[in-house]
């Protein structure tokens, strides 16, 4: 089969990402209770509901239109920084110069890079600050590196998922330096960041969703 992401593959990637979040939403709220209101899991449930519904809707085939619609839908979730930044990420992916109906691995990398740039314009957080950036930036870097080496989309998404997981896990040993959590200092050390963990789960879903379509 062609190594490409079209409307069907993209929808399945988002469906699987939603499944990952639903399975772990209680854990996400537990993590958030360390330095937040303990409602991150609930927020992420609303995020993936919008993500899945918009991605699977009977809308135009154009991938940039679909990604922009997904992003704006997610941004409409009243869930603080996480929903706003994730919505910005998905909408930002639409800024990339990609094909209208399908993306090869290079296009996928371009889209994820564009999404990260959009997020970076909205937050000053950097790797090491114990935020979702600790998972998102290495995931995008891994995907881009895989594309540059000529790997398949499935391989690139797997690399990205592994990098996101490693980034999320690394936040366990960090002290929050950004947002409301920074005021708790050392109390934030010892558990992974909820936002970074959510990003890792999303990338797990992207990888599983593309693989389930039978791509190599």
Sequence-ordered SSE layout with sheet pairings:
Elements: H1 7-35, H2 40-55, H3 63-75, H4 81-93, H5 105-120, H6 133-148, H7 153-170, H8 194-211
Please tell me about this protein's structure:
- The model has no long low-confidence stretch (mean pLDDT about 90).
- Helix 1 (about 5-35) packs antiparallel against helix 2 and helix 1 runs antiparallel to helix 8.
- The chain is built from eight helices and no strands.
- The chain has helices at about 5-35, 40-55, 65-75, 80-95, 105-120, 135-150, 155-170, 195-210.
- It has about 220 residues and is an all-alpha fold.
- It is globular, with a radius of gyration of 16 Å.
- It has a single domain (about 5-210), classed as Serine Threonine Protein Phosphatase 5, Tetratricopeptide repeat (Alpha Horseshoe).
Distance between the termini: 8 Å
Describe the biggest sheet?
Answer: none
Q: What fraction of the residues are assigned to beta strands by DSSP?
A: under 5%
Q: What oligomeric state best describes the polypeptide chains here?
A: single chain
Proper CATH architecture: Alpha Horseshoe
N-to-C SSE string, H for helix and E for strand: HHHHHHHH
> Can you tell me the residue ranges where pLDDT is under 50 for at least 5 consecutive residues?
none
CATH fourth-tier homologous superfamily? DhaL domain
Number of strands: 0
Average pLDDT score: 91
CATH names the topology as: Serine Threonine Protein Phosphatase 5, Tetratricopeptide repeat
**Name of the CATH first level:** Mainly Alpha
Q: Give Rg in angstroms.
A: 16 Å
Overall morphology: globular
Number of helices: 8
How many structural domains does the protein architecture include?
1
Structural class: mainly alpha
Task: Give the % helix.
Answer: 55-70%
């Amino acid at each position: 089969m062609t190594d490409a992401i079209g409307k069907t593959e993209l929808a399945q990637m988002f469906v699987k990402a939603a499944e990952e979040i639903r399975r772990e939403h209680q854990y996400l709220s537990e993590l958030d209770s360390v330095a937040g209101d303990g409602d991150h899991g609930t927020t992420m449930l609303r995020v993936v509901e919008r993500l899945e519904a918009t991605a699977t809707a009977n809308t135009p085939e154009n991938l940039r239109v679909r990604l922009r619609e997904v992003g704006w839908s997610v941004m409409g979730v009243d869930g603080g920084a996480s929903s706003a930044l994730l919505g910005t990420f998905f909408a930002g992916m639409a800024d990339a110069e990609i094909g209208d109906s399908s993306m090869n691995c290079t296009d996928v990398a371009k889209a994820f890079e564009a999404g990260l740039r959009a997020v970076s314009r909205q937050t000053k957080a950097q790797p090491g600050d114990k935020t979702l950036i600790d998972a998102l930036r290495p995931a995008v870097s891994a995907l881009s590196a895989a594309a540059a080496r000529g790997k398949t989309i499935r391989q690139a998404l797997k690399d990205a998922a592994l990098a996101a997981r490693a980034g999320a896990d690394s936040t366990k040993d960090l002290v929050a330096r950004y947002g409301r959590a920074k005021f708790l200092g050392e109390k934030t050390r010892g558990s992974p960041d909820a936002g970074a963990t959510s990003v890792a789960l999303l990338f797990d879903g992207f990888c599983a969703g593309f693989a389930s379509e039978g791509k190599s």
